[in-house]
Amino acid sequence: MGRRLGQHFLKDQNILKKIAGALEIQSGDFIIEVGPGRGSLTELLMAAPVGRVIAIEKDKKLALDLKLKNRNDVVLEVIEDDVLKVLSTITNKLNREYKLIGNIPYYITGHLLRIVSELDNKPSLTVFTMQKEVAKRLSAKPPAMNLLAASVQYWADPKIVASIPPGSFIPPPKVDSAIISLKTKKVKNSEDYYKFIKILFKQPRKTILNNLSEGLEMEKGTIKEKLADLDIKERSRPQNLDLETIKKISKLF
User: Strands, E, within 19-80: which ranges?
Assistant: First the structure.
């Protein structure tokens, strides 16, 4: 059932403790857990001095099992639903600071990160397990900057906490995994920024000048002048830009 939904259950207690530890739990913290599965990570969260844990589980049987197992615990609330559909509604109702954690199904990683980036009430800290390659991409710096990194790093500071071998899961995935911590920055949601970076990184092997000229339908001469104002070489490629430079260019255009 879990496998059908893309879930790989962690069995390594040391890894589970690293995930929980990366959340830097303080007394009274409000925590939302994505995909608790059989509740291995949930147990560690409940053992900490938390104020509240909301566990969102899509699988009906797993959600019911978790509810029955913790039916006498007033701290835990289990919600049987799709996190991609309900996270925004839940966080909007909180009206308080919270942290987000989960051993998430890998196929929802990109979609979930996009939803978190658009939340009006973002978590102060997010800790996810994901494919190691994806974790490396979103935490990349020049000369390996990419669309995912430019998107995530706009609203969060990513840090790879630890690698996870396939054997730590049941069933083992076919890829290496990683724990990643995302500390939220205080920024305003900017649709214009996200639209711009899609243009900037549309063809990463092309120059900034060519991507912007084609994507913005703007004359190259005008773009050259604007880039010169920031002392950016027109023949540079997007992967060589750091985040602050990307933000400056997005404001120009």
Answer: 30-34, 52-57, 76-80
